[in-house]
């Protein structure tokens, strides 16, 4: 049970220490105390019983004895006595206790206060409105009696029985009457609760009105709706300053689903100026009753109204310096106008007013000051703030001062934003410093950097920046101040680039270099100068240029596609047929006629320009298979570049590669490998960390060229080129020193010097740029801020959509032209979007600086508009659109485009990019069809990632919800059959088998469907279910003849599956080898390298059984190398599995060691993939036997038998291997038993199986050793018949000889035949 407790709003006043009264004590002969329920600095609250009525009451006893406290207590009692409303705690009585202490008795309430409720559970919108309406009605009664509460906050709003609609207003201890009265304020103390006080309370203005309570209720409303206080800050002084200077985060930026009318009501309650605020509670009640109730429908799409963005028109952010000063001595009384504080306030206001500064004294005696970079210099405002700090300490010694610089909103009475929060954090750290010594002036790092060498600054051992005292004494080459500037200080880097290019051309050898340097270090300028030198040499060179953009980082539309489109003059928005014609016209210029169409068609996939499948059979064959498509695109790119190189050197420039894509990185790496003997050079430019963003970069083939800062001589030369040869040497030296070698910083410093804006230091470049943007005319700045939403590139239509027609008007082109002349943006001669003029920020940091000036509350609306405009304009990169809608708080649209992007990246074989997009979509909590779409893709992709657990768990859950026979359904069936089979889930597999064969594929899904039939046939064969496997084969041959005829991938997998059948079920290695060779041919024709791995591995198995271990190893290693090049986990795992099995059959110690290492990770810890785990145990058994570790060999072989028990073909192999080990160790009876088991398992499958003649040979040896001649000869006859049968399929004599002599079990059979029946019986 909760109860009313005393919550004094002012500072804790001194008073005598009084112990709690004993239970049953009586007050004024009327109230019997029952229990102490709360106490504070000014008294205690008891639960008591009114003996006259028998009712429970809350009885407050005053502890303090000061006259002020007594008067306040008496005033509270008299005010409550005159107020009657269900929403105001009921007065019962007041008077003096027997010990002379004043008391006040009020009704006893059951429930909890709002503060407790908000900690426990937030309010719903309906509960919040009910609470506000109830409190406003109660407060209207008080306001009608001329009473202002002055301390409204959640802990003073009691929820009777926990019901927000039955709230009760408590604690009128700070209430005051509007009628003239004796002031109870003897000193500058805070009357109210920081965080809920009105600005006029904070600044201690006279003449409070009821609107102060409205502001406090607005703070409560904001907290109920958002869960956070509107003016939260790390320190009391910062809280008070934020109330004066800043606006809270807009309501609908935190909760976009709330009605706009509610946001408007909240704005009217939190207006800084009382004249713009609702005047009293009765007006608030009327506003609430007029408020449209929220509809019952679910959340709708966020608003994208055509009205101008408030953050661009009136509330943009700007650079602001903040000063907070708090005295360590008691503040002066309010009436002492001669005190230094009062003199200082006036002096500061006079001094700072011309510079846009604001000074506000606050109720606790502290002072807040803000300075905007009004004239465009970040340094000016920081220097003024530092001078103010020193002036304050001079006038009021012992005052602690903090200085910060950051962004704030350009509206209201001032700006603070995050700068005020950092000031509060610094005040907190100041309070932790030991007492004594002079009060310091503490700065954040931005302010310290802006001050540069103007003031002596140090850093304390705790890391604080301290102001010590008075200031110290004295693409194309971008133009600077309208002048072209040389590329200085880069002679060594240019020489290296020229040497690489000449080597590339002279020796016809591919070269690649990655120029790497931080933002602003001059990478683009270096690239421009290098290309200009090539032009001066008049060397014929074909330049391909692709540029990264932050809005497209990691997207499926790559830099290479961009470069090819630019070469062909494509924007991506022309009619499809025209795009095809232009691609064919340019890309096929040097290609052989017979390869031109196919090569262009695959490059069209890279450029977002698909060609008709029927025109290019190979394109049709690989459509829908990301690995094969990726391989063919790579092959086409290589053919195109090789053809171009035959006529002239090719220079591929990839600018801003850190915003590039994994596909480009991989294709470039493959091109460098395949064109190593061609005059092909790659020049990539990126920021540090590009390796983390694009790990596919081929480090061995791409040398790095780090770009360091300019040396002093080069920087001085640049400064003199721009400022003129008569520039003072001291000035040039200072600029060079401050620039610290960063070319961009140096340029900005030169601009500032030329414009008389002072100096800055390099680490403050963002502040410098933002200050420079502040100098623009408001309309030009609005255009720049709007453009920043679209990324590095932007378009007139996009800017117009963001600003709204009313704001953009007809002058947009004029403002853009001004931005071009100011060297902030540049116009492009071509545009991606027809009819739209395209522009580009000259430097990414300018775009970043502009974007950061947009208030965070206005960014969602801006990104929604940007996303919608780009979508309507024809943006074909779903990841760009997804990013905008995510930032625009439109999750449904963001999820859709993230899912689409993930599918595109999956098709392009970019699993990492796909995973990033899927994670981004999942973070938005999709449900329904959107969630189903993602889960299906996740399950399908898990197979390629060798993650069969996710494959089966996610796949089983989503499969029933997919359309049977669709492409997605068929792909998922493929993955599920592979996954659940290798996990040993036979019954589930057989259910899938029935479902698959009973389902007719959709017309466009036939290739995917019959590929699933291939996989299903192989997986049921894993379990030895020959009948079910044959049903798949029959279905494929009968219903999929057309697919087999035209789809070489399905045909290749059909051949692989037949290879497995003949080898592992029927024991026909020669036939298996023939199938694997046909599979290899089909898959090579399709360019399906990932699938070709399987052809190599199965041919290795067949060659080993044919007695050709050398060729088997060669094929296994080729498969392994190909798998590593493809880079997908599943083929890598499969290739390792095969190579280990082949190597374990070798007597070479090195091979045995290698085999052990290949399978170690599958047994430590044990893999969940039972086929791989069982094979690993089999490999370890063979390795241990080869190394003479008999017991270890038997242990591993028995493990293999146990794990492979569900898989009949592999089980037969494992039993035979165990029998062979037992035989070698002299365990004849056990060997015979295991050989018989192996024979029995093979017989169930209807053939000899992969073990072949092995079990028969061991059985014959064991029977002869036991004296069971009849059984031995029977087994030997069967083994001989097997050998004769298999020899009929081997046509060449050398192959027959290898089969008989190089396969150990076959050779042993021949030896036994000679011993028993002589040479005449030999085959």
From TrEMBL:
InterPro entries: AAA_16, Kinase-like_dom_sf, P-loop_NTPase, Prot_kinase_dom, Protein_kinase_ATP_BS, Ser/Thr_kinase_AS, TPR-like_helical_dom_sf. The keyword ATP-binding applies. PANTHER family: MITOGEN-ACTIVATED PROTEIN KINASE KINASE KINASE 20-RELATED, SERINE_THREONINE-PROTEIN KINASE YBDM-RELATED. It comes from Stigmatella aurantiaca. CDD domains: STKc_PknB_like. Keywords: ATP-binding, Kinase, Nucleotide-binding, Serine/threonine-protein kinase, Transferase. ATP binds at residue 60. Residues 31-291 form the Protein kinase domain. This is Serine/threonine protein kinase. Signal peptide: none annotated. One of its GO terms (molecular function) is ATP binding.
């Amino acid at each position: 049970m909760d109860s009313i407790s005393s919550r004094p709003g002012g500072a804790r006043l001194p008073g005598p220490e009084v112990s709690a009264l004993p239970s049953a004590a009586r007050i004024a002969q009327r109230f019997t105390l029952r229990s102490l329920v709360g106490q504070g600095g000014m008294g205690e609250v008891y639960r008591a019983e009114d003996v006259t009525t028998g009712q429970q009451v809350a009885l407050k006893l005053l502890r303090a004895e000061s006259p002020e406290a007594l008067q306040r207590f008496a005033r509270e009692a008299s005010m409550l006595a005159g107020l009657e409303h269900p929403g105001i705690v009921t007065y019962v009585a007041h008077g003096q206790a027997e010990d002379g202490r004043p008391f006040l008795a009020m009704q006893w309430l059951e429930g909890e206060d709002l503060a407790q409720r908000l900690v426990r559970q937030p309010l719903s919108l309906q509960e919040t409105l009910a609470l506000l309406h109830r409190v406003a009605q109660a407060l209207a009664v008080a306001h009608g009696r001329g009473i202002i509460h002055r301390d409204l906050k959640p802990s003073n709003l009691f929820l009777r029985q926990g019901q927000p609609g039955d709230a009760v207003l408590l604690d009128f201890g700070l209430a005051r009457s509007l009628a003239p009265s004796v002031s109870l304020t003897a000193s500058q103390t805070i009357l109210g609760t920081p965080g809920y006080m009105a600005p006029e309370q904070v600044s201690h203005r006279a003449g409070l009105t009821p609107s102060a309570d409205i502001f406090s209720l607005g703070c409560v409303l904001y907290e109920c709706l958002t869960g956070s206080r509107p003016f939260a800050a790390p320190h009391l002084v910062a809280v008070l300053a934020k109330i004066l200077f800043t606006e809270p985060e807009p309501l609908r930026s935190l909760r976009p689903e709330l009605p706009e009318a509610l946001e408007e009501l909240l704005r009217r309650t939190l207006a800084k100026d009382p004249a713009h605020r609702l005047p009293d509670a009765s007006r608030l009640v009327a506003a609430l009753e007029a408020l449209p109730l929220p509809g019952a429908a679910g959340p709708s799409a966020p608003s994208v109204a055509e009205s101008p963005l408030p953050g661009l028109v009136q509330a943009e952010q700007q650079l602001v310096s903040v000063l907070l000063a708090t005295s360590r001595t008691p503040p002066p009384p309010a009436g002492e106008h001669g005190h230094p504080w009062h003199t200082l306030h006036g002096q500061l206001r006079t001094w700072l007013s011309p510079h846009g500064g604001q000074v506000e004294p606050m109720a606790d005696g502290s002072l807040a000051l803000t300075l905007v970079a009004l004239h465009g210099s970040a340094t000016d405002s920081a220097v003024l703030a530092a001078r103010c700090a020193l002036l304050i300490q001079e006038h009021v010694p012992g005052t602690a001062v903090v200085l910060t610089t950051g962004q704030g909103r350009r509206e209201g009475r001032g700006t603070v934003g995050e700068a005020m929060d950092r000031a509060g954090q610094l005040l907190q750290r100041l309070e932790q410093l030991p007492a004594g010594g002079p009060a310091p002036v503490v700065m954040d790092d931005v302010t310290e950097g802006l001050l540069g060498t103007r003031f002596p600054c140090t850093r304390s051992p705790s890391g604080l920046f301290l102001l010590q005292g008075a200031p110290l004494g004295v693409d194309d080459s971008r133009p600077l101040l309208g002048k072209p500037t040389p590329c200085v200080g880069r002679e060594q880097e240019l020489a290296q680039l020229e040497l690489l290019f000449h080597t590339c051309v002279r020796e016809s050898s591919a070269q690649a270099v990655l120029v790497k340097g931080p933002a602003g270090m001059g990478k683009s300028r270096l690239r421009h100068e290098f290309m200009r030198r090539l032009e001066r040499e008049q060397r014929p060179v074909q330049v391909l240029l692709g540029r990264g953009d932050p809005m497209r980082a990691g997207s499926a539309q790559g830099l290479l596609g961009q470069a090819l489109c630019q070469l062909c003059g494509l924007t991506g928005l022309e009619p499809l047929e025209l795009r095809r014609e232009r691609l064919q016209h340019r890309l096929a210029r040097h290609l052989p006629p017979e390869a031109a169409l196919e090569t262009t068609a695959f490059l069209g996939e890279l450029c977002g320009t698909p060609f008709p499948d029927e025109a290019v059979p190979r394109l049709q064959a690989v459509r829908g298979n990301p690995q094969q498509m990726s391989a063919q695109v790579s092959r086409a790119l290589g053919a195109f570049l090789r053809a171009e190189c035959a006529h002239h050197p090719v220079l591929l420039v990839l600018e801003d590669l850190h915003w590039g894509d994994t596909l480009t990185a991989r294709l470039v790496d493959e091109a460098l490998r395949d064109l190593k003997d061609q005059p092909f050079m790659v020049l990539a430019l990126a920021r540090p960390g590009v390796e983390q963003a694009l790990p596919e970069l081929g480090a061995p083939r791409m040398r790095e060229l780090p770009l360091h800062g300019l040396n002093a001589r080069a920087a001085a030369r640049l400064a003199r080129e721009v400022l003129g040869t008569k520039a003072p040497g001291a000035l040039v030296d200072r600029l060079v020193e401050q620039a610290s070698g960063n070319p961009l910083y140096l340029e900005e410093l030169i601009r500032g010097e030329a414009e008389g804006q002072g100096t800055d230091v390099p680490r403050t470049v963002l502040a410098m740029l933002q200050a420079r943007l502040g100098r623009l005319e408001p309309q030009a700045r609005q255009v720049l801020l709007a453009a920043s939403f679209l990324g590095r590139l932007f378009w007139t239509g996009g800017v117009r959509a963001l600003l709204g027609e009313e704001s953009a008007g007809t002058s947009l082109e004029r403002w853009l032209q001004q931005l071009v002349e100011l060297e902030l943006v540049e116009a492009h001669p071509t545009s991606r979007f027809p009819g739209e003029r395209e522009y580009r920020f000259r430097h990414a940091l300018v775009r970043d600086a502009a974007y950061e000036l947009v208030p965070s509350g206005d960014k969602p609306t801006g990104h929604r508009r940007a996303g919608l405009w780009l979508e309507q304009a024809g943006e074909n990169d779903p990841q760009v659109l997804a990013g905008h809608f995510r930032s625009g708080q439109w999750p449904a649209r963001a999820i859709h485009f993230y899912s689409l992007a993930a599918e595109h990246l999956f098709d392009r074989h970019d699993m990492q990019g796909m995973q990033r997009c899927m994670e981004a979509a999942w973070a938005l909590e999709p449900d329904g069809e959107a969630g189903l779409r993602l889960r299906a893709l996740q399950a399908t992709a898990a197979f390629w990632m060798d993650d069969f657990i996710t494959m089966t768990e996610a796949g089983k859950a989503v499969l029933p919800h997919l359309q049977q026979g669709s492409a997605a359904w068929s792909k998922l069936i493929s993955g599920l059959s592979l996954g659940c089979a290798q996990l040993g889930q036979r019954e589930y597999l057989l259910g899938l088998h029935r479902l698959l064969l009973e389902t007719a594929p959709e017309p466009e899904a036939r290739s995917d469907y019959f590929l699933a039939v291939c996989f299903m046939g192989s997986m049921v064969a894993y379990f030895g279910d020959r009948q079910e496997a044959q049903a798949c084969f029959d279905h494929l041959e009968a219903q999929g003849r057309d697919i087999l005829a035209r789809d070489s991938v399905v045909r290749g997998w059909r051949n692989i599956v037949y290879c497995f059948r003949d080898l592992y079920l029927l024991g026909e290695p020669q036939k298996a080898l023939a199938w694997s060779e046909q599979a290899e041919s089909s898959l090579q024709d399709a360019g399906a390298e990932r699938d070709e791995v399987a052809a190599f591995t199965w041919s290795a198995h067949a060659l080993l059984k044919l007695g050709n271990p050398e060729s088997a190893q060669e094929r296994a290693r080729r498969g392994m190398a190909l798998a590593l090049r493809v880079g997908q986990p599943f083929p890598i795992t499969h290739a390792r599995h095969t190579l280990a099995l082949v190597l374990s059959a070798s007597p070479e110690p090195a091979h045995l060691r290698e085999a052990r290492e290949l399978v170690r990770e599958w047994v430590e810890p044990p893999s969940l993939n039972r086929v791989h785990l069982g094979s690993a145990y089999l490999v370890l058994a063979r390795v241990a036997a080869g190394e003479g570790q008999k017991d270890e060999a038997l242990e591993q072989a028995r493990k293999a038998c146990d794990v492979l028990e569900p898989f009949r073909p592999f089980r037969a192999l494992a039993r035979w291997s165990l029998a062979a080990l037992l035989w070698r160790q002299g365990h004849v009876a056990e060997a015979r038993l295991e050989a018989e088991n192996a024979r029995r398992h093979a017989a169930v499958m209807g053939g000899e199986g992969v073990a072949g003649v092995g079990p028969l040979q061991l059985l014959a040896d064991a029977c002869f050793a036991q004296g069971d001649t009849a059984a031995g000869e029977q087994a030997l006859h069967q083994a001989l018949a097997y050998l004769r049968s298999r020899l009929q399929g081997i046509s060449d004599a050398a192959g027959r000889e290898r089969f008989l002599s190089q396969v150990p079990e076959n050779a042993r059979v021949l030896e036994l035949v000679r011993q028993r029946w002589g040479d005449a019986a030999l085959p």
